[in-house]
Amino acid sequence: MSGNVPSVSGNHVEDLLRQLAPQVLGALVRRYGHFDTAEDAAQEALLAAATQWPGEGVPENPRAWLITVASRRLTDLLRSEQARQRREDTVARWALPEQWLAPAADRMPSDSDDTLVLLFLCCHPALPPASQIALTLRAVGGLGTTEIARAFLVPESTMTRRITRAKQRIRDSGIPFGMPPAAERAERVDAVLHVLYLIFNEGYVSTSGPTLYRAELSTEAIRLARMLHRLLPDDAEVTGLLALMLLTDARRPARTGPDGALVPMAEQDRSRWDAGQIAEGVALVSAALPNGPTGSYQVQAAIAALHDEAPSAEATDWPQIVALYEVLLRIAANPVVALNHAVAVAMASGPRAGLDLLDRLAADNRIADDHRMYAVRAHLLELAGNHPAAREAYETAARRATGLAQQRYLNTRAAHLTDAPRPGTPPEGEDRAVSGT
Q1: CA-to-CA distance for 271 and 266, rounded, in angstroms?
Q2: Residue 122: which of 151, 143, 102 has the closest Cα?
Q3: Picking from 44-58, 68-82, 293-307, 330-344, which range would have the lowest pLDDT averaged per residue?
Q4: CB pairs under 8 A, 24+ apart, for 192-196?
């Protein structure tokens, strides 16, 4: 444990530990198995580092330091478990670290990466999506159970049970810690991307609670997507998802007013959009589109880029956005994409054309009662000049919305509906990462 560098700030240590946490846990699970026990040992090592490093300095090899401390603690935990179960038949399933034949935990196989393997494990198809999200945020994101429960507005005890059940299912299923076979890898990458997308969307447009967004969730999703992109730089859909997140999140500073009220995209102060994120996102999607099959995340990123690069709402290239949505409908048809396609058609060809598409979409029970359906209809009716029907639709949308920010916005639109429609202003539902499934 020698060779420490001079003391560093607590923030630097916190950032470093967040980066190293999945690597340490992955190394322990790869080496010893026992996901639950390995996580406990890793958490104790991280706590020791958070206590010691700010004053004593960061070791020359912080990852090895953490794995060494965690391995010692894991040995203690397994010995204790062995002692308790010595008289039980299940003792045969436990083995101390020195009995394992796998490579040392701090020696990463050259053809693998423990963080990527850990992501695959947390997003295993055997787990339901809610468990995949919770376990990913816990094991890979390094968020505590309290933080995850607060983010999804459920009691901590509920989230604890959800994470515990997920880890038990992994243990009971005998899922090995390792890269999935090549035949399964593409499907598993899709699952990882889907989980990161869901985390980002919940952060960017909260489905419930008092605020429009939860920046900690969208920021964490971007961090994990960056990490995945570093691990799989040639995967065009991984690149597309990172681009989509950056291009969408770039608008966040302008999405709410001083009082926290929602500001529709067309009314946002575009000088407040993050130009650096936009440039990075455009570069990523431009690099991804020519390489390999075009996937849904790449198309969504291209749509977001058209929004972000338009100097004003009036200058938005709606015909091109309509064309991209039609491509997206062929790749990944779902009712949320169809709803956003209707918005784009209305902006390009007039509200009546969009309302005609909504009438067809109303037969889809997956979205017929969703507040976004009523919000879009309300806005298009407003643009068409049918203000009484628009007001009624706004009020219905507000009643069905679960987020307080959306409810306030929709009620305000209903209360202040005037005889002067605001052409060129798309409804609030279009300002989000679009696929929604």
Answers
A1: 13
A2: 143
A3: 68-82
A4: 192/119, 192/120, 192/123, 192/228, 193/228, 193/237, 193/238, 193/241, 193/297, 194/123, 194/129, 195/122, 195/123, 195/129, 195/132, 195/133, 195/136, 196/136, 196/221, 196/224, 196/225, 196/228, 196/241
Scanning 141-274, the segments in alpha helix (DSSP H) are 145-151, 156-173, 182-204, 215-231, 236-249
Q: Please say whether the beta carbons of 179 and 118 come within 8 A.
A: no
Alpha helices in 264-370 (DSSP H): 275-288, 296-309, 318-331, 335-349, 351-361
Residue (of 326, 396, 324, 399) closest to 362 by Cα position: 396
Q: What is the pLDDT of residues 203-239, one digit of tens each?
A: 887 665 555 567 778 888 898 899 889 888 999 999 9
Residues 6+ apart with CB under 8 A from 361: 335, 338, 339, 342, 367, 368, 373
Residue 98: φ, ψ to 5° = -70, -10
Are 364 and 338 in contact by the 8 Å Cβ rule? The answer is: yes
DSSP H or E stretch at residue 405: helix 404-415
- What is the distance between the alpha carbons of residues 413 and 432, in angstroms, rounded to a whole number? 19
Quick one: pLDDT band at residue 104, thresholds 50, 70, 90?
Answer: very low
35 to 66, 113, 311, 421: CA distances (angstroms): 17, 17, 50, 58
Residue type, 71: S
pTM as predicted: 0.73
Could you identify the residue written with the tokens 């491509």? 327
For the chain, helix (H) and strand (E) counts, in that order, are 18, 0
- What is the DSSP-derived secondary structure letter of residue 392? H
CATH class of 234-430: mainly alpha
Where are the domains positioned within the chain?
1-86, 234-430
Tokens 């509906």 appear where?
A: 417
Environment class of 51 (CB within 10 Å of its CB; exposed 0-12, middle 13-18, buried 19+): exposed
Model confidence at 108, pLDDT cuts 50, 70, 90, reads very low
Mean pLDDT confidence for 341-363: 95
The yes-or-no verdict on residue 256 having pLDDT over 50 is: yes
360 half-sphere exposure, CB direction, 13 A CA radius: 10
Q: How many CB atoms lie within 10 A of CB 15?
A: 11
Segment 158-176 mean pLDDT: 82
Burial label, 273 (beta-carbon count in 10 A; 0-12, 13-18, 19+): buried
